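pasting for the record
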Amino acid sequence: MLTVFDSATIAARERLEAWREITAASLAPTAIDSPDPEAFTGRLRSMPLGNAQVTSLSYTSLVARRSSREIRKSDPECYQVGIIRAGRQGIEQNDASAMLGRGDLVIYDSSQPFEAIVSATSLAEAVHLQFPRRLLPLPTRQVAGLCATSLPGNVGIGSLLAAFLTSLADGRTQYIERDARRLETIALDLTTAVLAHHLERENPPLRSPTYTLYLRIIAFIENNLHRPELRPATIADAHRISQRYLHRLFQQHHPAGVAAHIRARRLDRARRDLADHRLDHLTIATIARRWGFGRPADFSRAFHRHTGTPPRDYRSNT
């Protein structure tokens, strides 16, 4: 990981303001105060993982508030998942609150106001995974129910995510771009698994026949992304339901519509292929066709919108 900020290199009276600036740039703008500003110390290290980012932080006592005003000024529309490594830290969001200690996991949303309080006699430490909300394949309204709650990170499936994040934070390896994107996939899959586990535990209806059908449809889409004819009509026919009912299922259980989900998954598969140098012998048009895009020009426009980079530039820079 790269050390982005270390208060030891800054005059005491300037440290808190410098911390505000670096956390705003690296995470999200917040109003930060400290009970003793000149005694404040902090350190921030960061590592990009494709569209995601892992950040290791250590800091003394502070209060961080992200209000509607900060959200209106700047919102990365991200989730942040944190594993607490030292100290006691409190958080409030969505009418929920938790006091977190060593080994606890927590998720919060940059698009909703929150308050975090750290009262420590020594340095508090945490590792954060930040990623765009659109990359999490779980309903936003259900994830909101887990925000600012304490999730165990030292037992069960939570320990897998915690161990992964802390190993990245403690490692000294400088990953190449292709490795970082593979690690992004692992981080998102582990996060999804942890959150889905807790959603299923707290919401038994997720195991209803309706949700089972939704999962079968998601699996069907994953297995048929290469077929150009894959669209809502063919999915509905394959599962003997109406298109209206298909769209209703996605409204209930998915953050995006059917067509948008298909397009995003195809683009993600194409993005991985373009980053895989074992496939350099394949043209961009071939990779586009491989994932259901019949017209290269349509693929290029969609890929540029999805990633912010034209496919040719993406391939040459990874």
